[in-house]
Design a protein that fits this description.
It contains three helices and five strands, in the order βββαβαβα. With about 110 residues, the chain is an alpha/beta fold.
Length: about 110
């Protein structure tokens, strides 16, 4: 299972970003093999950033997203994709991953 996390810095210690589609980086974390990669979010559009971020999740075969609450357009795209979203506000990526594994994050 792969998880996409919106983060401010390319580090597991980075805080979850306050903005999903306009975050600086996306962390793609594979729970099975515990490998991960950071993707620089270079979405520079005034409109449609949410659906583009969701397409990135789909392209990376992500099953769950951890972030702040995504905007309306992103949520519409997420619902269509059947990807689950979890509220990670206030946590680092590392903390959010542990809470996710323990079933402690709230699904949005």
């Amino acid at each position: 299972m792969k998880i996409m996390i919106a983060v401010d810095q390319p580090s597991l210690d980075s805080k979850i970003s306050d903005r999903f589609a306009r975050t600086a980086y996306f962390l793609i974390y594979d729970l099975q093999d515990q490998k991960y990669q950071f993707i620089n979010n270079d979405i520079e559009t005034k409109h449609g950033a949410g659906p583009k971020a969701v397409q990135l999740a789909i392209d990376n075969k992500v099953s769950a997203i951890i972030s702040a609450i995504p905007g309306e357009n992103a949520m519409d795209a997420i619902k269509e994709s059947k990807i689950k979203v979890y509220d990670g506000r206030g946590f680092s990526a590392k903390e959010a991953l542990e809470k996710f594994k323990n079933g402690e994050l709230k699904e949005v």
